[in-house]
Amino acid sequence: MDRTVGLLGGGQLGQMLCEAANPLGVKVVILDAENSPAKQVNAKASHITGSFTDPEKIRELARQCDILTVEIEHVDTHVLEEIAEEGIEIQSADGKTTRKKVQVQPNWKTLRTIQDKFLQKEHLAKHGVETAVSQAVESDKSGLERVGKELGFPFMLKARKDAYDGRGNFPVMSAQDIPDALEALKGRGLYAEKWASFKMELAVMVVKTSDNTLAYPAVETIHQDSICKLVYCPPRGISTHLQEKAQDLARKAVGSMWGNGVFGVELFVMENDTIILNEIAPRPHNSGHYTIEACPTMSQYKSQLLSILDIMPSFPGNKIPSLSPATVMLNILGGASKTSHNALVQSAVATPSAALHMYGKESKPARKIGHITLVAQTMAEAEKAMNPMIALADEMRMERLPAAQRIAAKATSMAKSASKAELQPLVAVTMGSDSDLPVLKPGLALLETLGVPYFVTITSAHRTPARMTDFAANAAANGFKVIIAAAGGAAHLPGMIAASTALPVIGVPVKGSTLDGMDSLLSIVQMPRGVPVATVAINNSINAALLAARILGSYDVELRQKLERYAKDMESEVLGKAEKLEGAGWEKY
Amino acid sequence: MDRTVGLLGGGQLGQMLCEAANPLGVKVVILDAENSPAKQVNAKASHITGSFTDPEKIRELARQCDILTVEIEHVDTHVLEEIAEEGIEIQSADGKTTRKKVQVQPNWKTLRTIQDKFLQKEHLAKHGVETAVSQAVESDKSGLERVGKELGFPFMLKARKDAYDGRGNFPVMSAQDIPDALEALKGRGLYAEKWASFKMELAVMVVKTSDNTLAYPAVETIHQDSICKLVYCPPRGISTHLQEKAQDLARKAVGSMWGNGVFGVELFVMENDTIILNEIAPRPHNSGHYTIEACPTMSQYKSQLLSILDIMPSFPGNKIPSLSPATVMLNILGGASKTSHNALVQSAVATPSAALHMYGKESKPARKIGHITLVAQTMAEAEKAMNPMIALADEMRMERLPAAQRIAAKATSMAKSASKAELQPLVAVTMGSDSDLPVLKPGLALLETLGVPYFVTITSAHRTPARMTDFAANAAANGFKVIIAAAGGAAHLPGMIAASTALPVIGVPVKGSTLDGMDSLLSIVQMPRGVPVATVAINNSINAALLAARILGSYDVELRQKLERYAKDMESEVLGKAEKLEGAGWEKY
């Protein structure tokens, strides 16, 4: 903790790094312009004024530090190589010149490999990490026509270096776009990438230590105008199995790099549910801002510090958990005027579950000047609270966009919001046959009333055994917390589902045409030791729904209060009837 | 957000206030010594060097600000009164002298009332807030002897002003202590307080806005050597009803004050479960540090800023919730040497669920130089992770204490740790009669195996109906998440319990001497609509235990993984038997 960290770059990532370093007692010396965001929150050191691309300034920084790190990868890796490998000349008190050892974390080789996106992709491919197919190109018309033939149109033409927030990418839809693409990326080293038709973008923050890699949860990222707009943790509507695959791939990719630090890994989920890597950032990342609130004892910034200081603790399963069940992050981009963001800022301050982070930067159109992180018990709640702020951000964007772009944007945004509004269902309701549905209806209606999001389907133990097992085995991964299963006769469904999941399963015995439901009841309740089914009364889907709600309510105070009100209402109803009966007498009642 | 806040005092409370203000974009100007903790993290303003008790410096600060606030109540309230009531003289650009309005928050009347503890107690008594009985005293032997007769020995002799962390309090055990007490508190205004024999100390942070008060959760505070040592949220082993009573009393007390801001309210829970107020601090408080991690979008520091800026949002039920189910805060006090705390700091950094806050203060024996906040899913987990750090803090204390005190301390600390080690039980297991225990034993053994903390008792629906209802009605407040109830015959217990709680209730039908358990089964499972019981098979306590574990596992990944392993083990067992049967043939098997 007594080693000094030198930081190349003092933007918002450096600022949040300092916010993590201050309470840890770690001294950070910053190289960047006067009054840069990081310097505004760190008066613990004399910082260096200058550019993080200036070799002489980097050497000056190295003289004051034990470890150098970066908040941006577009740095001069040759100076860093020189410092890491040969040390830095310092004058000792007696005027002699000696060389001091200074670490560079992550290693300069990592920075050099990553800052050239084509080198990065080649490196990853060599290490067995799936990425979009890329190839080097000759920067002329015939070269790009050849690429179009080989990769097919559309393809992405990308600058190898200094590309971020979409700057440096050009989508080549057809051969006709080639001259524009060459003009837009003139003078830069280029490569081409096969068009990746993904259904979702994910990101995973990975911490690399000297002998391990640790993954934060996978998050869903939403980009707009080639800039990250929103981050959802967990991702909406993809299985935990896929999320874990994303974490594994991200860890594998980062594990192939050199040195310690935190890495932002962007990935694509393809239509067939395979996951490929898009690109890596060797530093804290926009998609990891949410960790400040969601992982309040181990944000990505604290991880960067602890990993470069080589004192990162271990985590079970190499996964850093989120304390917040559902988190949404919204970037604040500068609007058309310097005050356009005021309404959004006020809305964030007025939202109790939202944390506002303003970076202390001058507002410019589309510049990242802050972000908002919102935490909640469920994603449904988080989305509900964040949506008004997203609407304000969208308004700012409309104001900012040139008119031509604006019309197209409006159409897309409307289409998107129409297809959204789906909440993560927490209760899965299934039945052996659609003839059981009438019995389930009162319970489903009650789940509606209680505002518990649910999903209804049919899985027959006897007619669709494979589907049933699949359904049960993936239920937890799909985000369900409880399963309700109804069946009649030789009612095997609830027990068979319980046999393929570790979630609580509630069984509703459905009364058939013979035996008054006793057959169903005993088939459901008399499970062997080891496989419990929470059985409710025959045909009593209301109690199944209430039980599901009680289970969720064990961890959701608001829902438990709803249930208490429900009980109070029942009590009043009966008390009312009692009063009526006592008043009217039993004959008239 | 564009108003400037002037802060009297730049210690750790001011530092954490600045850490909250920076991302909100609120400018804070600090009056305190050069390089004080708050100034170390705030380079956004030119601060003022000087003492927060110097009237001229306070006026200088007021000239630069729109709102003045404090991180300490021992300030000159007469200057603040003058500034708040008359404004402050400033020179306008054309050289003219005008008066600028500057708000003081909380109001100077609040500061003046609170900084004199006897005035504070009189004020609270006048507003119907229960406190320890206090009386003004004459500071001589005969005066104190009179007090001893009236209040009884022991009583507390307290300085009216400038008392904190136990400094200014003297326990007068008998008349013999009077000369020492007078010597210790010589020259200060004094009052006497009846000895409060409390069983627990609580604290509640309250936010006062211009038309409301909001309460953070009640926390348990543990003091040692008259300094706050530990904070537990929620408090261990007291009902949520009592916690709410504490919040209500704290809100009532703060509601009687003037102006806006955040207040730390210390309370005593007496042996008879009444709650009385100990004292109030008109500022962020040590007992509210935990909110930085536990309420990551609304810490006590953010609340102070939003309330004094009069933009505090509202919360349902006027309660600010904790995102963390269980939180423990441990203060780091300086040790015998400047490096004594290194082991504790290292332990905090090595604990993934712990956040370290070092204040950038020079270490002196018993000085508050930092704190550690630990978050977890259960208090059992939180205590388990924090206990090694408490042990390190205890070691530091042993080293720091003079030898005489040390021996006494050791005895107390051993007695305490022996009586601890109890975890918060999550499953309540109850039965109608002890004759049901043999049926429950396999289930209880399984809860042990799975590491699920539980509590076992007997509550008969027919023989102890009041006890049963009490038990059920308080179960959620007592921290239980699931109830298992076993009964036989006319088995009313599970259903009656379900009628008095909103927690999920699992019913185990116990087989009696007649009817093969069918009587119990139907009495338990055939509940009316509205009151569900999760019924398992007759005598199958194993499944009841597993079901309870699945319910907890819905929100506890580690437990779910244990259950998945349990299922795998069952599978292997059966597969093993199948192999044996296939190999040996059914005759030999």
Automatic annotation (TrEMBL), chains A, B:
Pathway: Purine metabolism; IMP biosynthesis via de novo pathway; 5-amino-1-(5-phospho-D-ribosyl)imidazole-4-carboxylate from 5-amino-1-(5-phospho-D-ribosyl)imidazole (carboxylase route): step 1/1. One of its GO terms (molecular function) is phosphoribosylaminoimidazole carboxylase activity. It comes from the Eukaryota. Residues 121-309 form the ATP-grasp domain. Its EC number is 4.1.1.21. Gene3D superfamilies: 3.40.50.1970, 3.40.50.20, ATP-grasp fold, A domain, ATP-grasp fold, B domain. One of its GO terms (biological process) is 'de novo' IMP biosynthetic process. Keywords: ATP-binding, Decarboxylase, Lyase, Nucleotide-binding, Purine biosynthesis. It catalyses: 5-amino-1-(5-phospho-D-ribosyl)imidazole-4-carboxylate + H(+) = 5-amino-1-(5-phospho-beta-D-ribosyl)imidazole + CO2. In the C-terminal section; belongs to the AIR carboxylase family. Class I subfamily. HAMAP family: PurE_classI, PurK. This is Phosphoribosylaminoimidazole carboxylase. The lineage of its organism: Eukaryota, Fungi, Dikarya, Ascomycota, Pezizomycotina.
